[in-house]
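Progress report, Aim 2. The chain analyzed during this reporting quarter is listed below.
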Amino acid sequence: MKILRAAAAAAAAVALLLCAGCGGKGSKDMENYKALGRTYYDGEKIYCALPGTGAAFSCKGKSCVVTVEGDSSVLAGNPDNLSRIAIYLDGERVVDDMIDKISETYTVFSGEEERSAEVEIIKLSESPMSNFAITSIDVPDGEISPLPEKDLFIEFIGDSITCGYGVDDEDANHHFSTRTEDVTKAYAFKTAEELGADWSMVSFSGYGIISGYSDGVNKIPEQALPQFYEKYGYTWSKNGDFSPQEISWRFKRRPDAVVINLGTNDDSYCKNIPERCEEFQAEYTRFLKTVRKDNPDAQIVCALGIMGQNLCPYVEAAVNDFKAETGDEKISFLKFDNQSQSDGIAADWHPTERTHAKAAAKLAEKLREVLGI
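Predicted structure tokens for the chain:
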């Protein structure tokens, strides 16, 4: 999976060049890249934890070299927990790699002639297992500037389905690996592409509203996503002092729409037991109040159903409870079609890219309706 990898270089030896017209002299003007999702800049490094995070920029020069820094997952030696990174050159994926070294350097392009290019660096895998930091973007004697924001911005809140769990492994008997996780092949990213929108994904495999994936007896409250919604993410893999669950997200750009796709993991705990389902409904309504507080003007779409539909009535009831209590009408429910075996089944019975594409088409239609586009 290693494409266009150059020899690793020490991050300290390369200045972070992110300035338009700086002539490659080492300026650190970090205003000249576009943040993708909830990236975090500490003054020296751009940290990417959540899926879909990264940086996008246009540049002009003879070469572009990107250096990233791995985290403690590299030292742990588990190949199924490493960060997966993609780098796109003018819309084409030219780097697809698992970050298995503390420092990794990628030559995005190089040649004798100067060229103009658009570059996107995207984290394909989710945050609990691993994260990485962009430590250097080097366009020697060239220019670099941020790609413009798109007119539409959508935030997606979800679980493994939103992360693209197992989408590159169409064998239901196989299990989790960041190597087969690709957020760009999941319904959320595809919906953003379909609508020409910028995106932000807040998603963790196994997480829910009141419980993570359960044995049906024990509740897993530590895997309730709402506790991390107002943070940069969550990880158990150390990268210096970066701890996304301890850093508050600033909501600098408010989304036009927020899509919530949670409940699949709660269903493993609720199991149609009335009191558990009612708890789920009440906590879902409570979470909607947090989402509305942080996104006062957004259309909220509450979706569920790709991997089971038992809790769909309770999600719809939570939406109706929220409307009745607040008078807020900028919220709606969408029931996804359950995945079909005719479209294949991916690892641990997760949806294939074909299923994701169908879900994206349905969600895009819904968003066009509620946004009036």
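The chain has two domains: 5-146, 152-371. The longest helix spans residues 274-294. These observations will guide the mutagenesis work planned for the next reporting period.
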